[in-house]
């Protein structure tokens, strides 16, 4: 198997030499008839394709930063500015001064460095630049710029102060998300996916999960990390054939089995995240009893049963949710998680279903509350009780005279039986996938080890 080596100097000339003023004029002229470039266009790059890519990136208002500038922005990637680490590499917070670039406002940013020894590589870095450099939407994280200097590959994004949905849902010491915020996040994330699927040149996200949904200060969600994104099928094609990549617990079963990737693969992953939002549980949690370790296998059978639904909803909400809204959201998750892709709804249908749920009030579905009656009501109740007692005494004496037997039913009649917990369905592990690290890092198929072949 021959893998053609891509020369970075030919693909991103602006990383190695400055863009001349004459080329800038060409950008403005050519941008009007621009068509989005995809990663597949770069498999065997020619001079024309290299020019097209640099033009598309220049026309999308991306800034090309130097490594020296990024060191100033992040205080030399100081550990005090460290935000976290994923499959791509470490992420640091930084601050851009308004004097750094003309037209670039002062703002906090997140700076992501490609770890050369990590699970993602140059191809994923380039994919991220291509997609986020050309796609703009309120529910996609904004890519401000990049750095491609010698072996360094860095991405600069808008800073998202609330971190990821994963942190908000599962971190032990955070305040539980209220129902309205959960529905707002689910709706916004669904709008982001629907935008990708319905673009003129459709995009399959392929790695939809709680850690890739970032939240701004008012919990508006934005999709991030487009390293595994793929252009969707074109013409009469029904799917894209590709190596199996994604994260354990989120990937659609038909994609795992066949490698056939469709927009419905994303819909399944959305169903998993919606289930996490409803239950407050991770998609895969090895610390739970074996039957509850795979969230979909355990919870899906109960989603369509209103009497059992309360058992799986996140107890941290303490009953503060809309019962009708929870039923509708659970029914939607059930559809998205269908094993038959054709039975799953499109993301635009998902958006329409979720739209009204964000306005459902957080209604307490808690224990019975006893209201103290007025003194006047208490007196009348006492009188009635006394009259009833006299009547019962008369009945008893009458029965004794007739030689009858008085049966004591009151204990049995009011005895409450606690509902038994149903047996959970068996846990089936996705043997086709393996887990990389505790935070759901990228999984790779064995094909990945054979080189950077085009997916």
Summarize the biggest pleated sheet: 6 strands, mixed
The percent of residues in helical segments reads: 25-40%
Per CATH, the architecture of the largest domain is: Orthogonal Bundle
Q: How would you classify the helix and strand content by structural class? A: alpha+beta
Total of DSSP H or I helical runs spanning 4+ residues: 16
The rough form would be described as: globular
Q: Could you state the oligomeric state of the chains shown?
A: single chain
Supply the CATH superfamily name of the largest domain.
Transferase(Phosphotransferase) domain 1
What is the alpha-carbon Rg in Å? Answer: 29 Å
Enzyme class: transferase
GO cellular component, one term: plasma membrane
Pfam families: PK_Tyr_Ser-Thr
Keywords: ATP-binding, Cell membrane, Kinase, Membrane, Nucleotide-binding, Plant defense, Serine/threonine-protein kinase, Transferase
